[in-house]
Design goal:
Structural class: alpha+beta
Radius of gyration: 24 Å
Low-confidence stretches: none
CATH topology of the domain at 359-613: Rossmann fold
CATH class of the domain at 359-613: Alpha Beta
Distance between the termini: 15 Å
CATH superfamily of the domain at 359-613: Alpha/Beta hydrolase fold, catalytic domain
Mean pLDDT: 94
Largest sheet: 8 strands, mixed
Strand content: 25-35%
Number of helices: 10
Number of strands: 35
CATH architecture of the domain at 359-613: 3-Layer(aba) Sandwich
Strand order of the largest sheet: 28-29-31-30-32-33-34-35
C-alpha cells in the first residue's frame, strides 16, 4: 500500500512494546540452575528473580531494587545452595530467602543497601546512610544469620567514607577485600581509587589509579581491575604484596572494557579458572572477547552488540546478557570448551522485514566527528508517495556520561514500522569511544551536546534521508536537557519531547541527590563562580526562544530531576501560548517502569508527533 510516512499500519502496539523486552538485571550460576533478575512491567517494573527451571524464585510483592547512589544496582545475589539475598525496594533492607521458606530481614530499617556480593559464605554490600550529616557510605559485611536485623552495629564495617564506594571483592583466602572509592568532589569516571584492606581492618593500601572499576582477585596477592590511563578503559593487573609493583596493562586495545559507573551491578569482564579472561570491548558497538594467558584476544561468536554484561562464570561456562543487532535483549550461556552458545531467556530473533538493523553513521560536527546509529523506516507492506521524505526522531540518551549501541529494538520498530525514522546519537561526552570523546563535554554541557545533535540531524537531512522540516528530538533526564537546549537554539527541530528533562541548572544543583551533587562542576563549572554560566545555559532562561510544539513527560516521584523542572518549562510555554503538553505520571520515578505508563507515554508521543508533523498515526495493529 502507498501511504504517507508516519501513517503506515504497524503490528507493534504500545502494549506489546511495554511487555516485549523485560530488562535483565544480573545472572548467576546457582547449583545446577541459572538465575537471573528480570523486570516485570505489568507489576510496576518490579524486579523478580527467575530460574532456568521455569520457577519464579522471588514472588510478588517482593521487589529486588536498590536505591543506593539513587540508581541502585547489585540488588540481589545468591549462594550455591540456593539461598537468595536481595534488597527490597520498599524499605531498602537486605533479606535472606532460603531455598524453601519466606524472606527474612538481615539488616535493620534506616540505611539502604546495594552492590550485594556473596563470596565464600560471606555477604558483602555497599551501605548508604542518609540519616547523619554528612551522609555516609561503607563497604560492609552483613551477617547471614539475621543477627543484624534489629541492630545496625552488628553489620561489620570494612571501610566508611563520606564519599562513595562500589564493587567489593573478597580475596580467595578471605583475608582481604578490594573495592573502588571516590570522593564527593568527582564522578567515578573522573577519579576513582582502588583500595585494598585486610578483613580484620588492620591495614589498608591504595593503588594509584585514574578511574578504577571492578576489581577481581586472581590469587591471594594479585588483582585485576579496569582503568583508563591510556585514554581507554582496559584491564590492569597489580600485585598487592610487599613488592608494591606498579600495575601492568593486560591486552590493551583501542576499545573500552568499562563505562560510566552509574549502577553498582555492572560487570564488564570475568577471569576464568584457566587464567584467561572474558571481557566486553566497546568501540561504538559492544563485542565480547576471550583474552588468553598470552594476551591475545579472540572475539567470541555471541549475538550481543549492545548493553553487554559478563554476569558470571563457572568452569568454562560464561553467562552474558545484552542485546544484538539481530536479536532482542536476552541472556546467553557460553561453553567455551564445547564452543556452544545457548539462549537462557529472551534473545528472540528480530524479523528483518519489520525491525531495522542499526546502521552506524558518523557526521562532521564543529567539535569533531559525531557518532550515531540510524534506524530507517521499515515496513514490508507500505511505501510512501514518490518523492516524500520521512519524518525522523533524533534520540538523545541520558547521563550525559552514557552510551547507546546499535541493537534490534522493537521499541524503535514502534516508530520505524509506522514510517518514522530514528537516529540514536552518541554526542560528545558519551562513553564507548574513549576518554577524549567523553571529555569533549567537560565544561561544555549545553554547547557540545547541542552542536552534535544538530550536526547529526542536519547531516541526515543533507544526505536526503530525512525531511528537514519534520525532524523531532526526544530525550530523557540529561537527554531532556539537550532536547530543551536544542529547541532554544532553534532552526533544526520541528518538535521536541522532553522526558523528565533538566530545565534549570541552578534548580538542579539545589535539588539533585548526593551522587550527582558535584557532577555539574565538571560539566558546566563550580558554583558560585560559574553562576552566570548556569543562568545563560539553562533552557528555562531562554524559554521565550522555543517556538515549536513541546511534549513534557514527568514522574511524580522523581528525586533525580524533580517535577518542578518540567513544570517550570510548562509554565513558560503556557505564558507565551506555545503549543505544549505536560503529562505527569503518578508514582513513577526517574525513568518509567510500569507497563501502563510505558503504554500511555508511547501513544501520547505518537499522537503528539502526528499533530506536529501533520500525519494521522495508527495506534493499533
Amino acid at each position: 500500500m502507498t501511504s504517507s510516512f508516519g501513517s503506515w499500519p504497524s503490528p507493534f502496539t504500545a502494549a506489546q512494546i511495554a511487555q516485549a523486552a523485560p530488562r535483565i538485571d544480573g545472572a548467576l550460576f546457582v547449583g545446577d540452575e541459572i538465575w537471573w533478575g528480570e523486570s516485570v512491567p505489568s507489576e510496576g517494573g518490579r524486579i523478580t528473580v527467575r530460574s532456568s527451571t521455569g520457577a519464579e524464585i522471588l514472588p510478588a510483592p517482593w521487589n529486588a531494587r536498590s536505591r543506593v547512589h539513587e540508581y541502585g544496582g547489585g540488588s540481589w545475589t545468591a549462594d550455591d545452595e540456593g539461598t537468595l539475598f536481595f534488597v527490597d525496594g520498599s524499605d531498602q533492607r537486605v533479606y535472606r530467602m532460603p531455598s524453601s521458606g519466606d524472606p527474612e530481614p538481615l539488616t535493620a530499617p534506616g540505611a539502604a543497601y546495594g552492590g550485594l556480593r556473596a563470596q565464600q559464605g560471606r555477604l558483602l554490600a555497599v551501605r548508604e546512610d542518609l540519616r547523619p550529616q554528612p551522609h555516609r557510605r561503607a563497604i560492609v559485611e552483613i551477617p547471614v544469620d539475621g543477627s543484624a536485623a534489629a541492630d545496625d552495629d552488628a553489620v561489620r564495617v570494612v571501610a566508611s567514607t563520606t564519599g562513595f564506594v562500589a564493587h567489593p571483592a573478597l580475596s580467595p583466602d578471605g583475608s582481604r577485600i578490594a573495592w573502588v572509592q571516590w570522593s564527593t568532589e568527582h564522578m567515578p569516571w573522573e577519579l576513582a581509587l582502588l583500595h585494598v584492606a585486610s578483613v580484620n581492618g588492620d591495614a589498608m593500601m591504595s593503588v594509584s589509579t585514574r578511574a578504577a572499576l571492578q576489581p577481581e582477585w586472581v590469587s591471594d596477592d594479585e588483582l585485576l581491575y579496569l582503568d583508563d590511563p591510556s585514554g581507554r578503559w582496559n584491564l590492569q593487573r597489580v600485585r598487592v604484596d610487599e613488592t608494591a609493583a606498579a600495575p601492568t596493562p593486560v591486552a590493551p586495545a583501542d576499545a573500552d572494557t568499562g563505562g560510566g559507573l552509574w549502577v553498582l551491578g555492572n560487570r564488564w569482564y570475568r577471569p576464568l579458572d584457566d587464567g584467561s579472561i572474558v571481557a566486553v570491548r566497546t568501540n561504538g558497538d559492544d563485542r565480547i572477547a576471550r583474552i588468553g594467558t598470552d594476551g591475545n584476544a579472540t572475539q567470541l561468536d555471541v549475538p550481543i552488540t549492545a548493553g553487554a554484561s559478563i554476569d558470571d562464570v563457572r568452569g568454562s561456562r560464561v553467562l552474558v546478557s545484552g542485546a544484538g543487532a539481530t536479536v532482542g535483549a536476552g541472556l546467553w550461556c557460553l561453553d567455551l570448551d564445547r564452543g556452544t552458545v545457548t539462549t537462557v531467556t529472551g534473545g528472540a530473533d528480530a524479523d528483518p522485514d519489520w525491525v531495522p538493523q542499526a546502521r552506524p553513521v558518523t557526521f562532521d560536527g564543529p567539535h569533531g566527528p559525531v557518532h550515531a546509529f540510524d534506524y530507517p523506516p521499515t515496513n514490508p507492506d507500505a511505501r510512501a508517495p514518490h518523492g516524500e521524505l520521512p519524518p525522523y526522531v533524533v534520540m538523545v540518551h541520558g547521563g550525559p556520561t552514557a552510551h547507546v549501541s546499535g541493537a534490534a529494538s522493537t521499541a524503535y520498530a514502534y516508530w520505524t514500522s509506522r514510517g518514522i525514522g530514528v537516529l540514536d546519537v552518541n554526542y560528545g561526552g558519551s562513553t564507548g569511544y574513549g576518554r577524549a570523546y567523553r571529555e569533549r563535554l567537560d565544561g561544555a554541557w549545553g554547547v557540545v551536546d547541542v552542536d552534535d545533535v544538530i550536526a547529526a540531524a542536519r547531516g541526515l537531512a543533507d544526505a536526503g534521508l530525512a525531511d528537514p522540516a519534520r525532524i523531532a528530538i526526544r530525550g530523557g533526564s540529561a537527554g531532556g536537557w539537550t532536547v530543551l537546549s536544542a529547541l532554544v537554539r532553534g532552526g533544526t527541530f520541528g518538535a521536541g519531547i522532553s522526558r523528565y528533562g533538566v530545565a534549570d541548572l541552578r534548580m538542579l544543583a539545589a535539588e539533585t541527590h548526593d551522587f550527582e551533587a558535584r557532577y555539574l562542576d565538571g560539566l558546566v563549572g563550580p558554583l558560585p563562580e560559574a553562576e552566570s554560566v548556569y543562568i545563560e545555559r539553562s533552557p528555562l532562561t531562554h524559554a521565550d526562544r522555543i517556538d515549536v510544539p513541546v511534549l513534557l513527560e514527568q514522574g511524580s516521584e522523581d528525586r533525580v530531576v524533580p517535577p518542578s523542572q518540567s513544570e517550570a518549562i510548562r509554565d513558560a510555554l503556557a505564558a507565551r501560548g506555545v503549543p505544549h503538553e505536560y503529562v505527569l505520571f503518578e508514582g513513577e520515578g526517574h525513568g518509567f517502569r510500569a507497563s501502563e505508563t510505558i503504554i500511555a507515554s508511547l501513544e501520547t508521543e505518537l499522537r503528539f508527533l502526528g499533530r506536529a508533523f501533520d500525519f494521522e498515526p495508527r495506534l493499533g495493529a
